[in-house]
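Record passed on here:
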Amino acid sequence: MFIEPEVRDQAWIGDAVLALYARLWTLDNTRSDAGGLRTEVFTRFTSNQFLSCFGEPTRVEAEIGRIYAAQGLAAAFNHITAKLLPVFISQLNKQSRLNRGPVYSICPPSLPVPDQPL
């Protein structure tokens, strides 16, 4: 599938914003990295398989990148919280119930973020 260079550039930034969000959320919502739980949660949150729930993964990341460029990190985080996080939580909780693991709730990362792009 052909992806325009501009979209790829936007996705490059969106991927980084999503990775930061996922790391912050994972730190806030998992107890430790015992058994690689944090790594697994982060990997699932940022995977193309998960992002494909919302469309073509590069385009999903590009949308995050565009929001970041136009409105800043807080807006991009708000977008992820509103659009991606509820689906991720639902999938994570389904898996946790099957494995009798922890149940997660929808809450954005608690660490403050700057309002302006770097």
